[in-house]
């Protein structure tokens, strides 16, 4: 199984809406998913991301809107006729079946000849690196192996679309990070159009071609991981993805002012009012160059130094009371010559890292 035998399908979603009584789960969702891409639906609990995935799978019928796989409208097509592989959060493996029987389940439902079933099961297990484990019981597997079995079962019938609902959430941190790399490797190998649901921002940034941020039943922003992280479309997205603090910005004659200073913005920046200044810990640094023409500077008090192995996180309260973090490489020595707690420090933010986000 080095590639899909069927061409991957694009997904086109237009005006998709779903209500449960007075609660709005999906609100006029528009989203185009490209053929063969890995797109992640990212959002907090209750945002509507899983509801949208269930609509794509066919387990939930929207109240209105269009859902197309390629040129085919799918709203009224039952799940078993959508040619979609699904990996659930709980894996949903059958404990009374061994590994091979679990993987073969979808093929048996499709009345595939026994010899072809054996060939495809072996191929799928090889693809997920579980060669030789076909006779093993599910209860004998580790969490990571169970996740691989669920994935093998989802891809064994060579679907053109693969849907995954938080499949790594039950794994410990180290295994989860390893499986993120493995899932990405498999996607590149198989080329299946993949829609992945998670509330883990780092997971989304690590794995995705593009991310669709879902908020209150709507698509708040769609873009590459770098676009979403570096150029968030709203304060909510900037706050949800990564670590951020915010300073109020006021506009005078088209110029942005913050902390009583004129902000130096990247060339070509066209901020709109109202907006806030996004401060990420990795974009700030301690500086003595308060008059550097490329830096925006802020003064505050050093409240705490947190050792994080390869870095220090400095917590600083700026004049005006806003608390910000400053992350830098670990210094030599116990605190590496860092200023003492309580010291007044100046923080520098380079012009190119100065990002204003809409305060909506």
Characterization of the model:
With 360 residues, the chain is an alpha+beta fold. The protein contains eight helices and 21 strands. The chain has helices at 49-57, 99-109, 114-127, 143-155, 173-190, 201-207, 225-230, 235-240; strands spanning 11-20, 23-33, 38-42, 64-69, 72-73, 84-87, 161-165, 193-198, 210-215, 218-223, 245-248, 250-252, 255-258, 261-262, 275-279, 284-286, 295-307, 311-318, 323-329, 344-350, 355-358. The protein has a six-stranded mixed β-sheet with strand order 6-7-8-3-9-10, sandwiched between helices. The protein has a five-stranded antiparallel β-sheet with strand order 16-20-17-18-19, with no helix packed on it. Strands 2-1-4-5 form a four-stranded antiparallel β-sheet, with helices on one face. A hairpin with a 2-residue loop joins strand 1 (11-20) and strand 2. Mean pLDDT is 91; it is low at 1-5.
Structural class determined from secondary elements: alpha+beta
Question: How does the overall form come out from the CA principal axes?
Answer: elongated
Q: Can you count the helices?
A: 8
Sketch the topology as an H/E string, one letter per element: EEEHEEEHHHEHEHEEHHEEEEEEEEEEE
Q: What is the tally of beta strands?
A: 21
Helical residue percent? 10-25%
Strand order of the largest sheet: 6-7-8-3-9-10
Q: Could you name the ranges where pLDDT drops below 50 across 5 or more consecutive residues?
A: 1-5
> How much beta, percentage-wise?
25-35%
* Major sheet details: 6 strands, mixed
Question: What's the alpha carbon Rg, rounded to whole Å?
Answer: 25 Å
Mean residue pLDDT: 91
C-alpha termini separation:
47 Å
